[in-house]
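Section 5: illustrative case.
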């Protein structure tokens, strides 16, 4: 453990007052547990994925969900939309998809007096929860249409800016095995995702539960727990949680250690400051999910891989030796 991290103090390095003392935080923790419980009744064997997705949403960010077909990625997004009470739109990304199919377009109309004018027709991006299904199947031009939306929460069409609804989140899915006819996401867009969440196969008991609950004559519909306004309140609460000096130092050590240098010749390029911001927000959100009002260094370690794995690249010799981003990040996190 680094010396300056181990000498942690109780005084937070960054503090904002909690609304209504700790009562608001306790109510938030109760609501979050209800959300997790409701999601868990419809998504089996993916507790880690459920928690990482919830951490992303409470942190106010976007998530890239990667997994083979049939692992309930689409169902996960739809369930979150219902449980959180968000307006939801889905876009199936294909090679012929155009930016206007996502952002919207202007149409020429003529009124009763014969005057012509343009009217803007909003696209599916004008929703609180946008599901970008198989995002890597669209062309780079179409993928870039999401950049401004994800970062600035607004889009520009024909030189006019249009504000997106609040809250606004993108949950994109990606299939890791069918790479023919796909376009890898550019680094600039990958950096906009707070997390890259990997969905693995369920274990035997979880798969048994899936069989019993999804092949019968009755199906359960998720129920709404909160709404968009309540979600934004929870997001503000996350940002207000105090962060200790040891956590700040751990985040800096991790992010700076994942960059190219003499100590890490296997790293070609590494995470920038946005990764540190994502870790700070993620640690706060994870603490609240875990029923705590103060994040710890363990939160940094736990979130290191999903937050950093898409923000760095290894050299060809390192990849040829079988080294992966996840392994490098896990080794760095173990030293905190």
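Designed sequence:
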């Amino acid at each position: 453990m680094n010396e300056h991290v181990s000498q942690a103090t109780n005084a937070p390095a960054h503090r904002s007052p909690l609304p209504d003392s700790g009562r608001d935080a306790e109510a938030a923790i109760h609501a979050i547990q209800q959300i997790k419980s409701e999601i868990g009744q419809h998504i089996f064997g993916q507790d880690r994925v459920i928690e990482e997705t919830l951490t992303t949403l409470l942190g106010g960010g976007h998530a890239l969900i990667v997994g083979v077909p049939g692992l309930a990625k689409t169902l996960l997004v739809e369930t979150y939309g219902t449980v959180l009470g968000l307006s939801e739109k889905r876009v199936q990304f294909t090679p012929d998809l155009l930016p206007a199919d996502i952002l919207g377009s202007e149409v020429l109309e003529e009124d009763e007096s014969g005057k012509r004018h343009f009217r803007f027709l909003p696209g599916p991006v004008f929703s609180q929860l946008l599901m970008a299904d198989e995002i890597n199947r669209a062309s780079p031009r179409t993928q870039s249409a999401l950049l401004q939306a994800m970062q600035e929460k607004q889009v520009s069409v024909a030189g006019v800016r249009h504000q997106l609804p609040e809250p606004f989140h993108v949950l994109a899915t990606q299939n890791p095995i069918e790479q023919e006819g796909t376009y890898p996401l550019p680094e600039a867009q990958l950096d906009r995702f707070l997390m890259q969440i990997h969905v693995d196969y369920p274990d035997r008991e979880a798969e048994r539960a899936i069989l019993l609950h999804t092949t019968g004559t009755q199906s359960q519909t998720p129920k709404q727990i909160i709404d968009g306004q309540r979600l934004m309140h929870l997001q503000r609460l996350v940002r207000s949680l105090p962060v200790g000096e040891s956590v700040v130092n751990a985040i800096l050590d991790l992010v700076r250690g994942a960059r190219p240098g003499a100590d890490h010749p296997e790293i070609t390029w590494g995470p920038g400051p946005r990764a540190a911001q994502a870790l700070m927000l993620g640690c706060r959100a994870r603490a609240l999910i875990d029923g705590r009002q103060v994040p710890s260094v363990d939160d940094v370690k736990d979130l290191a891989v999903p937050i950093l794995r898409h923000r760095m690249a290894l050299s060809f010799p390192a990849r040829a030796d079988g080294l992966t981003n996840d392994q490098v990040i896990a080794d760095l996190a173990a030293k905190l």
